[in-house]
Amino acid sequence: MLGLMQDWPLLLHRIIDHAAIHHGTRPVITRSVEGPIVETNYAQIRARALKVAQRLERDGVTLGDRVATLAWNTWRHLECWYGILGVGAIYHTVNPRLFPDQIAWIINHAEDKVMMLDITFVPLMEKLADRLPSIERYIVLTDAAHMPQTTLKNAVSYEEWLAQADGDFAWKQFDENTAAGMCYTSGTTGEPKGVVYSHRSNTLHAFMAALPDSKNLRATDVCLPVVPFFHANGWSLAFSTPMVGAALVLPGARMDGASIYELLDKYKVSFTAAVPTVWLMLLQDLEKTGAKLPYLKRVVIGGSACPRAMTKAFEDNYGVEVIHAWGMTEMSPLGSLCTMKPEYAQLTGEARLDIQQKQGHPPFGVEMKITDDDGKALPWDGKTFGRLKVRGPAVAKAYFKNKDNILDKEGFFDTGDVATIDQYGYMQVTDRAKDVIKSGGEWISSIDLENLAVGHPKVAEAAVIGVTHPKWDERPLLIIVLKKGETATKDDILGFMQGKIARWWLPDDVVFVEDIPHTATGKIQKTTLRKQFRDYRLPT
Ligand code: ADP
Q1: Is the pLDDT of residue 399 over 70?
Q2: How far apart are CA 256 and CA 249, in angstroms?
Q3: Closest C-alpha residue for ligand 1 atom 27
Q4: pTM of structure
Q5: Is 367 marked active-site?
């Protein structure tokens, strides 16, 4: 027997319909790429997204076509997403921080038909355009006055292009399993892989993301997604925020500490999210200026492990709750968030920080297990670590144009992370499987060592890699960037770490550098560091 409920496919443009009807005047404020602050609202976003869909259809874009966006977080980018979705096409976010060759590879692999891009990226695309036969038209996200002279094929300014539509358009209707969005993993090993989200998976994921023990978003919030829409599906914020009707503040191209602080303060932002490197810049800026964060209530920190010192600084110095989160492009991307279950809710001080080091527990819709290399499930005791595997309606089952089976017999996807899970279901990432340091048959977590080292008051950033050792196979090397104007010695740093970790985990050496390389999504680039220190010999 089937249920007798209505057939109401979970289509993403229904989210902007809801936002426009019930939260239509809620502000959407952007620091535009051209410079000035631009204010609009959900009703206008929807009205213009309808024009985007109508205009795309006139340009021949239909169900299943890929439309690339190479853009910062702005109101125009948001309109484009909903317009693309509403015509049944697929938004394909391209990360501008990738190498130009990778960008070309990804666009060709996705066979994007149209590209919507910020003025900032016109010179980049002019260099690549000859190699991108599938792109028929470039729409530059600006108005006629700011439109640059360009050789890009059929280039037009977005505002002029949009003005040719009246918005008299009805969203297309189709199956909820239809592809909605695409995002390529950064491909630090091998070629990038295309992850394809569906309307259904993104809608369910937006519900999961908004839940009280996830981001706890509500209509009274003012949400600042510092994390770019092109990083791992924008952590769902382009969907979960309008879904609940919270106001949006979008940072455009400027994500330095001072610019972010200005938005947080001026627009009374209550919720924000980004990777640790962004928060490092903000906290350093606040330390310098002495400014406070009276309006900010919650900050989601993920993408790489959130250092204990960062959690402590936000909570103790600024009264902001830190929600440590873990996920990946293949998971839409949310996998777990570290909010407090009753078992841990009473903890304070260092004991609370111990729990916040963990990446947390999954919302409904994500199942987890840890296994050994043979696939045997391991116990949830908070100590045993194994390969972290996940399953759920917003987890990838395959990559675009790739026949490889990526699921185990039970349908779980191997995340490539090594983790523990404790008795209450809190997961903690020990390391990426390829970054873990194998010393004498035992594993050392590079993440734990990095988190500890950045707790030293003079350290700005720390990275740990394994270097070859004649007896132990590998030993940890600690690479440090000091805060501006500070000096420290190897013994200062190791002395600080001593007693806080097992003795045999202590790095064999410390080197001081000016800069640590980062990936296109702001993570420490271990592959480059390993190359850089390939000929390095540990002191004997
Ligand atoms: P990219 O590397 O391109 O940013 P993803 O965002 O998909 O791609 O990266 C996912 C990976 O990032 C995870 O598998 C994990 O290794 C790491 N990661 C994400 N969040 C955390 C976190 N809170 N702590 C530690 N590692 C994290």
Answers
A1: yes
A2: 15
A3: 304
A4: 0.94
A5: no
